[in-house]
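Provenance

Sequences were taken from public entries as deposited. Structures were produced by running a predictor on each sequence independently, with no templates supplied. The record for ATP-binding cassette sub-family A member from Micromonospora saelicesensis is shown for reference.
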Amino acid sequence: RDAIRLRSVTRTYGASDGAVTALNDLSLSFSVGTFTAVMGPSGSGKSTLLQCAAGLDRPTSGSVLLGETNLTTLNETQLTLLRRERIGFVFQSFNLLPALTAEQNVALPLRLAGRRTGRSQIQDALAQVGLAGRATHRPGEMSGGQQQRVAIARALITQPEVLFADEPTGALDSTTSRDVLTMLRTMVDEQRQTIVMVTHDPVAASYADRVVFLADGHLNGELKSPTAAAVA
Ligand code: ADP
Ligand code: ADP
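Predicted structure for ATP-binding cassette sub-family A member:
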C-alpha cells in the first residue's frame, strides 16, 4: 500500500520565457512503513519534491495522492487541515518556538488541530525521544540534538501518515546525527511510520530502506538497502 504517490508531477517556476523546471514529469511512490532517502545535487528538485508531496506547494501539473486523497483537488483550507492532521515535517533548523518549553512545543500541533492535549500523551512522546527529563526546558537550554528530538516528537504527536524530513541532521555533528537517525529508524521498524527524508549525507541515507536520486527534476536511479559506501 502506498502512503503517498506522485503521478507525473511537474513544477515550473517563473514566466514561460525564463521558466525553471524544478520537477519534470516525476512519478514516485512511498510505501507505508518504509524509510526513503531523497538525494541529488543542489537544484535537482529535492525541496520541491518534499514541498509538493507534503502539500506545502502545488504541482503545475500531475497529482499527489496521500492515501486515497488527491491533494491537487483540495482548496487551501482543506490543504491546511490535511497538513495539520495527516503530515509531519522536520527541518534542518528545528523550527521550535523559542518561548515555549519542550512539552508546549510538542503539544502545539494538537492545539492547532483542536484536539485535547493529555499531559501523559506529551510525556510519552518526549520519553519516546529520550527527553522525559527535559519537558520544561526551552529550546535555548537544549543541545541541537535534543532540539531536533523535540521537533521529531512534535512532528509525530498527531500520528501523521507520513513524516517528511528536510536535511534533519544537516545541523548536527555525526554522533548526534546517528542518535537522531536511529530514532527515526526505530519509528519505522516499531510503528510502521512512513518517512521521506532529503539528505546530502551518505551515512544518513544508509539508515533508509531505499534511496532515490534526483537529477534535473527527474528520477535518476534508486538503491534498495543502501550502504553509505554505495551511496557516496
Ligand atoms: P534542491 O532542493 O535539490 O536544491 P530545489 O527544489 O530547491 O532543489 O530547486 C530546484 C530548482 O527549482 C532550482 O533550479 C531552484 O533554483 C528552482 N526553484 C526552487 N524554488 C523556487 C522558487 N520558489 N522560485 C524559483 N525557482 C525555484
Ligand atoms: P536546499 O536545496 O538546501 O533545500 P535551496 O537554497 O535550494 O536549499 O532552497 C531553499 C528554499 O528556497 C526552497 O524552499 C526553495 O523552494 C526556495 N528556492 C530555491 N531556489 C529559489 C529561487 N531561485 N528563487 C526563489 N526561491 C528559491
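The helical segments are 46-53, 76-86, 102-112, 119-128, 144-156, 174-191, 202-205, 228-231.
The pocket of adenosine-5'-diphosphate (ligand 2) is lined by residues 42, 47-48 (CB under 6 Å).
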